[in-house]
C-alpha cells in the first residue's frame, strides 16, 4: 500500500527525485517493483518540501494519480529544496476525504507519511484513539488509518519526544493494538528523517557528508542502495544513517 520517499541534501529540483529517475516515485504510481501489497498507487499523491530559512514546509497534494496531474511536472521542474517528503497513495479502504487523505500530513515543522495498513481498522484502534485529546481527534485531516497513526505520533512530538522515539513508540503501540498491521512510516523536520520498516520494504541511499534518501524502493540502479531489515527504526541526517532493531510487542 503506497510508496514514499524522503530526501536530505543540497537543494535540487523536485524533478530529480520524483519524476526524472527511471524508477522514480512518478513511475511507482503505476509500476512499483518491490510493492508487496496492492499494484497501483492511484488514490492520491503529495509532496512536502522546505524552503531555506523557513522551518514550516509547503505541500502540494492531489486526489488522483500523479501521472494525471498535468501541472505537477512543471512544478517539480522549478521548485528546489534540500529537504523533501513525497508519497503516492493506494487507499486501504474507499473514502471521501480526497486530497486530505494524501500524505504528507503536516503540523508545524513536521511532515509524515504512512506506507501500509492498520489491520482491523477502525475498531482495532479505538483504545488508542480514546487516549488522544478531543482536539486531536476533531482536527484529524482525514478519516483514515494513516491520519490516526499520524495523530498518535504528533501527540508524542508535541509533548517533547524526539523524532525517533515518537515514531518507535507509535509503531509499537499500533502494532500491539492491531497485530499484523503494516507500519512503514516516514517522519521529518527538514533536518533529520526517521522511518520504520515494519511489514513492507524500505531502502536508503547515502552519499556520506552530502545527502541521504530513504524510500520504499530504489528509484535507480545505483548499487549503493541498502535494504533496511524488517522491524527496524532508521534515523538519518545528511551525514549518517543509524539502524536500530525494534522488538515485536508482547501480548
Tell me the overall shape. Answer: globular
- The overall strand count is 13
Radius of gyration: 16 Å
Helix content: 10-25%
Structural class, judged by helices and strands? alpha+beta
Furnish the topology, listing elements before pairings.
Blueprint: E1 3-13, H1 14-18, H2 25-28, E2 45-49, E3 58-62, H3 72-78, E4 80-88, E5 105-107, E6 110-117, H4 126-130, H5 134-138, H6 145-158, H7 163-177, E7 182-188, E8 193-197, E9 203-207, E10 211-215, E11 226-227, E12 232-236, E13 241-245
For the structure shown, list the relevant keywords.
single chain; 251 residues; alpha+beta; Glutamine Phosphoribosylpyrophosphate, subunit 1, domain 1; seven-stranded antiparallel beta sheet; six-stranded antiparallel beta sheet; 7 helices; 22% helix; globular
Brief digest:
With 251 residues, the protein is α+β, with helices and mostly antiparallel strands. 22% of the residues lie in helices and 30% in strands. The chain has 7 helices and 13 strands.
